[in-house]
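Private note to self, pasted from the team thread so I don't lose it. Backbone tokens:
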């Protein structure tokens, strides 16, 4: 990050301080922490996974769905994935933010988003690109405006990066369990740094709109679990950046965080396995998620209006 703070806003200074404070006191972990976590997951999940006839793919969204309402998860699996403006805006904005770190021409948020949209629309191999290419002008304008707003909001809060600091955007990480029958995957918005030996050094960052929720820490703990199993060293810090409020939540990773991630992943994947194998019916739990569940029209437990908020808060 920049060596001087004279041209940074107070919020950018605060973000930089939150990321770098205590950097020289980074924790060192035992070299077997990654294999131990993998063995825990394998021991819990492999017996059921052995009965699958096709791999089960798990990410932070599907975990949240099945733990929130099993019926919601089943409905999403049945409906399949479809692109929409609310779904695509995050991917477009994140790609534009990635460009902002690596381009040298000082491009504006408008130019960055336009560059991403044009590139994807010309990419016949891209799923989202094929969808963008057939949008009408109104839908494309909505997508462009929302993405520009998100990129501009990020630029206002985030300090410039110091040359040479390792920064990666939306880099995929995958953990394969039970002979590849269970595949855990994640794609953090940003990561900074890398471990040194068994000393933590990577900062994992998720960029959020809306208000803070406990599930956001769960998402980051899931990323930390995957990174630990992949690299053998946990990340140093987990950071959630809220664009609307400017709030930055920073947490130094501990073994307790990784234990919590193992318990949550084990519970969520076990539910998926039981439902996939037909061992029981899905439990229904009304909540805010009912608003975008594909089964909301026919589900007997779907919450609506104020009731959805009450159930979610509960």
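Design output:
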């Amino acid at each position: 990050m920049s060596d001087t703070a004279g041209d940074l806003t107070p919020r950018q200074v605060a973000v930089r301080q939150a990321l770098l404070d205590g950097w020289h006191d980074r924790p060192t972990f035992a070299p077997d922490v990654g294999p131990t976590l993998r063995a825990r997951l394998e021991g819990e999940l492999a017996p059921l996974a052995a009965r699958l006839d096709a791999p089960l793919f798990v990410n932070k969204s599907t975990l949240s769905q099945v733990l929130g309402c099993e019926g919601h998860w089943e409905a999403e699996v049945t409906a399949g994935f479809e692109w929409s403006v609310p779904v695509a805006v995050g991917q477009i904005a994140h790609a534009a933010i990635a460009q902002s770190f690596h381009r040298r021409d000082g491009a504006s948020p408008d130019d960055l988003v336009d560059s991403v949209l044009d590139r994807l629309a010309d990419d016949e191999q891209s799923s989202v690109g094929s969808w963008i290419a057939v949008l009408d002008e109104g839908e494309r304008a909505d997508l462009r405006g929302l993405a520009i707003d998100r990129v501009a909001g990020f630029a206002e809060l985030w300090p410039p990066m110091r040359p040479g600091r390792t920064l990666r955007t939306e880099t995929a990480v995958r953990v394969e369990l039970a002979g590849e029958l269970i595949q855990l995957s994640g794609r953090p918005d940003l990561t900074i740094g890398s471990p040194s030996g068994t000393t933590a050094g990577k900062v994992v960052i998720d960029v959020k709109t809306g208000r803070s929720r406990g599930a956001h820490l769960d998402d980051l703990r899931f990323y930390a679990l995957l990174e630990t199993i992949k690299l053998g060293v946990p990340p140093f810090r987990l950071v959630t950046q809220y664009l609307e409020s400017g709030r930055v939540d920073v947490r130094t990773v501990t073994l307790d965080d990784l234990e919590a991630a193992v318990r949550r992943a084990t519970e969520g994947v076990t539910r998926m396995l039981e439902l996939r194998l037909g061992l029981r019916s899905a439990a229904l739990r009304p909540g805010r998620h009912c608003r975008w569940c594909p089964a909301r029209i026919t589900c007997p437990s779907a919450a609506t209006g104020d009731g959805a908020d009450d159930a979610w808060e509960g």
